Amino acid sequence: MITAAALAVLATACALGSWRFTRAGWTPRAPRLAIFLWQSLGVAWGLATTGAMLAYAVQPYDLGVLPGLIAFARGETPATPWDALHVLAMIAGVTALAVLVAVLLTAGVQALRARHRHRTLLALIAHDDPAMPGVRVLDHPGAAAYCVPGLRSQVVVSEGARRLLSQDELAAVLAHEAAHVRERHDLVLLPFAALRRALPWSKVVADAQAQVELLIEMAADDRARRYCSPRRLATALLRFGSAGAMPTPHGMLGVHAHNVMARVNRLVKPGPELAATVRYGYLTLAVTLLTAAPTLWVYQL
């Protein structure tokens, strides 16, 4: 019973923490740390929410969550008899866990299919350019620059974008898209997209997804700044925004018009770095969240 209560408290703390985190002002100063903290909150919330129900469900075994589930799966007889509340808790916990896993797998499969279809399409309508090795050029007058993530990742730019941008600006945009590919930001977004499918009515989940989308763009901007001038990248983003960039295909990562100005302001006038004590404090919090829920699943209080 103590384990179930502890997991319920942790789930509530993660929900309240996520609500507060959507209003945090420090995240643009440390986007990678903020992404890690969002991931920790999401994982801890999912495990704690389902774990609280399952911990109560397997209480008759007096073994803890994971050992109790193993005993239940083996058909072992519990130490105390089952009652209706424990049965309902088992049904609710297993159902919630199954839904979370199912939406994650569904989102992943749909993204893989969309990328496969898009690669097939690019093979027909895009071409290579010796001046830009490793980049596929799309014969389209609209401005577009995005990446196709995956094991066979590709960076794509349209003819319209090449005409719109200067050589330095184009190099900055390509460095940004290459950063998405290297850091596998598609995998960062996947759980949040899946959680949005599971909880479409939740404003906190919608805000979290939107914030993570912005944070991965900022993280890619930071990596691109190692190879180009921040102002070149900022002017390229402004040109995309004013020209009305093409929508990024489903399952790809590219320029989003709704977050351009936040990124431009950050590139032109970067804020001070987050203090080391604050950074380590948030890092410790994230690691604690990631370890607390699995520990409570394994060990009984």
TrEMBL record:
InterPro entries per the UniProt record, alphabetical: Beta-lactam_resp_regulator (IPR052173), Peptidase_M48 (IPR001915)
GO biological process: proteolysis
Coiled coil: none
One MF term in the entry's GO annotations: metalloendopeptidase activity
Record Pfam families: Peptidase_M48 (PF01435)
Cofactor requirement: Zn(2+)
Gene3D superfamilies reported in the protein's UniProt record: Metalloproteases ('zincins'), catalytic domain (3.30.2010.10)
Annotated transmembrane regions: 84-109, 280-299
Domain Peptidase M48 span(s) in chain numbering: 113-192
Note describing how the cofactor binds: Binds 1 zinc ion per subunit.
Keywords: Hydrolase, Membrane, Metal-binding, Metalloprotease, Protease, Transmembrane, Transmembrane helix, Zinc
Domain of life: Bacteria
Family that this chain belongs to: Belongs to the peptidase M48 family.
The protein's name: Peptidase family M48
Naturally occurring in which organism (per UniProt): Nonomuraea wenchangensis
